[in-house]
Amino acid sequence: xxxxxxxxxxxxxxxxxxxxxxxxxxxxxxxxxxxxxxxxxxxxxxxxxxxxxxxxxxxxxxxxxxxxxxxxxxxxxxxxxxxxxxxxxxxxxxxxxxxxxxxxxxxxxxxxxxxxxxxxxxxxxx
Length: 126
Known about the structure:
It comes from Epilithonimonas lactis. The protein is of the alpha+beta class.
């Protein structure tokens, strides 16, 4: 059974997609960009952007009764690989006990709204 997950604690979708879809205990979270859900404004600066993206992911996980410990896969998209170290450090800080999901990080030429970082995630809960 498929369930659409939506929370006002994360930015609304900016296209024809859901924030997340839950199927048989697996949560597929759409790519999150650094939009503040309270005012809809973009956050600027790679450190602040990364924290906002992680907060958005956290809110969606919470709406599905999960947290970062349930994450099994993440995909990070960067406008510049020069930001890798900063993004990596902030990303890692959201996981307890150094239990990280599988992940890839790729540089792309452009992201929605011309942001510097976007992260999608897959999580699982029995």
